[in-house]
Amino acid sequence: MSQTSRPTGHATGQTVREAIRTHYAALTQSERKFAQALLDNYPAAGLASITIAAANAQVSTPTLARLVQKLGFKGYPQFQQALLAELEAKASGPTQRRDQWASEVPESHLLNRFATAVGDNIQQTLANLDSAQFDSATRLLADTDRRLYVVGGRISRALADYAFTHFQAMRRRITHMTSSSATWPHYVLDMTEGDVLLLFDMRRYETNLLRLAQLATERGVAVILITDQWASPAAAHAAHTFHCWTQIPSAWDSNTSTMMLLEALIAATQEANWPETRERYERLDSIFDAARLFEK
To answer: How many Cβ atoms are within 10 Å of 61's Cβ, its own excluded?
Structure first.
């Protein structure tokens, strides 16, 4: 978000969604009613006029005015500015991202700016990580009675490939879906209720991944979505959604915080079934030795 679009008093780097989460305990029942209506139809519910937005949520206009101030905005116009800036950020490509950070380049070396941005991303990601949701997702990933499917998009397929390599070593019944969406109906054909789909989708979000998440949930599959701070539309169909902060001084977003979360899920899944996982690792090493895959 550029300096001109940040509302006064609103926490830098926070989306409106995260501001609601931060201040939720301090909201009144009526304020929570609008907050939930916004989250259910995000961000469209907040882009109408204050009168219409309040009426749609069946709350009063003063209630909505008080809510946006509690979230750190001077008023409703600044609140809408933030939502519009999020929409713009969701749709921005490499050229727009590069132009944005280049217009605000400080004098420090690029390496220092990268280190600062990556550190901030990790902190934001951890601060907004729900440990109960993390544990619940781990239980799904570790349950070998459920088939696990893994898929990513144009860029995030590298994360999916990394995830598959590790999960394949520690558990059975796992499928790495190809990057070609034309083949996905064949995978969906074999999905059954209780299966798990680990899906990676970062901005600019891919319509085929959204449709896949919808088709999977219709078959009773639990979708675990790893996305960025703006949230893939596939979140509407996910049982668990993890937001990773990704902005860096580059035309591209960073996957450092995403990889941190993924590796934490891998480690937690490994520990959840350690006796079985250890035995599987040992058998795999025996096969490696027989195949003379690694230098001794």
So the answer is: 15
